[in-house]
Design goal:
Length: about 425
């Protein structure tokens, strides 16, 4: 009899597990339909993909017009001279070498002035775009009406003055100018061998991936929480929890959010990387440091990024069940958002010191290892056992947070009124246990 009762209990337990699995699949399919049939989700994905592709094609399109533009700009010598940009120059010392000056500023016509005031007046009335007044070999004034953020004209003129100093030194000491300059600008060959990892080149894709996982957690975590709160506010959650396991509901919503996020990011990534590879020869700025990501870093990012996404998605789902009104969601979800923001700032601030104690500690904490560990793999020194231990801690925490989130979800979904504090929800679970 005891054996038969035990067998019946095992069969009943198995049937409950099968029933929960069927419920989970139903919820998952329903939530995925909500994502992929949502116009905002589909349209935003298409728009971002088109913008990514278009951005990479801009240099190619611009390059196609260069030949035609250069032909239109060809003019007669006299006309070309009239169109040259003018700079005002006052030389109080008589040391200026106009040939050398024209070599430094090949597209500039210099207007010689008799005083500093005249040079300033030419710049003021916009006859000259910029002006210079040479006071001595080591001193000059620079005049400009409105200085732009990327204005390097003064630096260029400083290099010209440095050349004049060298020429003057050679003349006074009877030195051969060419030999002196050849020695001055002798090129030193550097043979660099990186025996470990090149943190300088790996920094940018690490930076981008940290921001990416941060945005995904905030965006999809908020979506999951708001979805649960909306269902609770319109009381449709009452029908769900009476016919479906609360754990199946929470896990279905979270896994659906993960699949939607992976699909959206993957689609955008394929479009962006594909268009970059097609147009990389036309890009003036090299983006290889961002797009050429080593396989081991991508695998680490996928493992820890997925774990980090899951742990915060369960948090957001449980926190969404604590409130009955969508306007109260920010108060409840503020706990998770605060943790995400602190982790985000800590990792970014210490990204240039990935072997420091802060990043090392963060790489083992489940709430921060999703970004800190792959940063260490990409830019620092990390042993295989550290990665394994960190991954185990992360996914054990995912399971625990998921189970805890399911209990909070079950105990909070049918409670309406004022927002429930997270501490009170956890105390309620302890009392029941």
């Amino acid at each position: 009899m005891k054996i038969q009762k035990k067998q019946r209990r095992n069969v009943a337990c198995l049937e409950r597990q099968v029933s929960k699995m069927k419920q989970f699949k139903t919820i998952l399919k329903f939530e995925l339909d909500n994502y992929f049939k949502s116009k905002s989700f589909v349209i935003s994905t298409i728009i971002i993909c088109l913008l990514s592709v278009g951005l990479m094609f801009v240099p190619r399109v611009i390059d196609s017009f260069k030949d035609s533009d250069s032909k239109k700009e060809q003019q007669e010598d006299g006309e070309a001279t009239d169109d040259l940009t003018k700079y005002a120059l006052y030389d109080a010392t008589g040391i200026a070498d106009m040939d050398e000056l024209k070599a430094v500023f090949p597209d500039i016509e210099f207007v010689l002035c008799n005083s500093k005031q005249e040079a300033m007046d030419l710049v003021t009335d916009e006859t000259a775009k910029r002006g210079f007044a040479i006071n001595s070999l080591t001193d000059f004034d620079y005049y400009v009406m409105n200085k732009g953020l990327m204005d390097t004209t003064a630096e260029t003129f400083r290099e010209y003055m440095s050349t004049l100093i060298k020429l003057d030194y050679c003349q006074k000491n009877n030195l051969d100018v060419d030999e002196f300059l050849a020695m001055e600008y002798t090129e030193i060959q550097v043979n660099e061998e990186i025996l470990g990892k090149d943190s300088a080149s790996n920094y940018w894709y690490c930076y981008v991936l940290v921001i990416l996982i941060f945005m995904l957690i905030i965006m999809y975590g908020t979506t999951i929480a708001s979805g649960i709160t909306n269902e609770k506010s319109n009381r449709s959650i009452e029908i769900l929890v009476t016919s479906t396991s609360s754990s199946a509901i929470l896990f279905g919503k979270v896994i659906a959010g993960v699949i939607a996020a992976v699909f959206q990011v993957g689609t955008i990534g394929v479009c962006l990387i594909g268009s970059y590879q097609f147009n990389k020869d036309y890009l003036a700025i090299g983006l290889s440091n961002i797009f050429n990501i080593p396989a081991n870093v991508l695998i680490t990012f996928a493992i820890f990024g997925l774990g980090g996404f899951l742990i915060y998605a369960f948090m957001y789902g449980a926190l969404g069940a604590l409130v009955s009104k969508i306007e109260d969601l920010n108060k409840s979800a503020g706990t998770a958002q605060m943790v995400v923001m602190i982790v985000y700032m800590l990792v970014l601030i210490n990204l240039q010191n990935v072997d420091g104690i802060i990043i090392k500690v963060c790489s083992f904490l489940p709430v921060s290892s999703y970004s800190a560990m792959f940063a260490r793999v990409a830019m620092g020194n990390v042993a295989l056992w550290e990665i394994v231990v960190s991954a185990i801690l992360l996914y054990v925490s995912v399971i625990l947070v998921g189970l805890l989130g399911g209990k909070i979800f079950r105990n909070s979904t049918l409670r309406y009124g004022n927002p429930i504090k997270l501490s009170n929800a956890i105390k309620g679970i302890r009392r029941k246990n």
